[in-house]
Amino acid sequence: MLKLIRASWIYGKGFFMFAGIISCWTYYYCYTTDLESVTGIPLFKLITTGIGLYIHHKRKQQEMYFYRNIGLTPKSLITSVLIADVGSWLIGLIVLMNILL
Amino acid sequence: MKEVLKIDSVFLEFDNKQVLRGACLELAKHRITGLLGRNGSGKSCFMQVLTGQLASSHKHLTYNGRFVEDLFKQKGLANYLPQFSFHPKSATLKQLLYFYNIPTESFLERNPFLKPSIAQKFSHISGGEQRLIEVLLVLEADTTFSLLDEPFTYIMPKYVDLIKERIVALSSQKGFLITDHQYRHILELSDELYLMDQGRLQLVQEEDLQEYGYLK
Q1: Among residues A2, A5, A11, A70, which one has the least CA distance to residue B138?
Q2: Partner-chain residue, chosen from B51, B75, B90, that has the shortest CB–CB distance to A13
Q3: Computed from CA positions of residues B101, B102, B104, B105, in that sequence, does the dihedral angle turn out positive or negative?
């Protein structure tokens, strides 16, 4: 499990930077806009995450041989990166909503 | 019991051009198997089919008689060295040793010249040294088989000898499939020799290589 977390961090580094910027933008949008008009934000986050991760994975294609050599599948890496990104985004959003409401 | 990895009936085609036409090969633990062939004969494609990176129209892979769907799904069965650099550039040698479960101390004891590179990011290490590290990591990792695609390319002669020594030493623990255009090293190391010819693999002897047009 620890190996998966460490490998996912190495695999996802570039993507986490992109996802972090998107997350910060969604928080800023939620903070500055009426709460009724932020319903599209989760969809926006999911779409940008999907596209970002797809491009990131394509760029990392050659490294997949390394991850497979150490017993990790592309599926397990993508899943753990997704959980880390969407999970941390959700926690941030809940905290923000609690502050705003 | 003899541990054997067998792949047969490998068919592969690109744009109606048949690259592999029923290629078959058998790897055994403690044996070094060499794979030779002309440029573009399909050696690397065969390696990629074997490791599941390339989808073939047909292949049958067994380990000790049992069907294997994916070589990597069975933990510790095999690892693979592709022709190109494939390790994350942001990782250090120390991190890579951790991922491959190779004890750092013993690795550095065997390869003291790599001590200065241990904490360096992979991207900060020279290309030749990167390749050498990649070869050594795949060799030293604890798997039953190692598949090596051009392990001697981009490596200086002194380290080629080191790699050959390690392959011979580690053949007491695992089986190897090696392909490289520096055929003399393959001839020197191999217990069995296969030649890729017209999409098929022929089990050959050194003296057959001229007959098949591989050597002058």
Answers
A1: A70
A2: B90
A3: positive
B164 CB neighbour count, 10 Å cutoff: 16
Residue B151 tokens read as: 């392990």
Kindly identify which residue of chain A lies nearest to residue B143, measuring between CA atoms: A69
- Partners of residue A9 in chain B, C-beta under 8 Å: none
Cβ contacts of B132 within 8 Å, gap of 6 or more: B155, B159, B163
Q: Residue B132: which of B158, B104, B106, B169 has the closest Cα?
A: B158
State the pLDDT at residue A47. 94
End-to-end CA distance of chain A: 37
- If you count residue pairs, one on A and one on B, with CB atoms under 8 Å apart, how many are there? 45
The distance of Cα B125 from the centroid of its chain, to the nearest Å, equals 23
Dist. CA A37–CA B110, nearest whole Å: 63
ipTM of the complex: 0.88
This prediction has a pTM of 0.88
Handedness of CA B25, B31, B36, B42 (dihedral sign): positive
- The pLDDT of residue B178 is 94
- Vertex B133 angle, CA B26 and A57, to 5°: 80
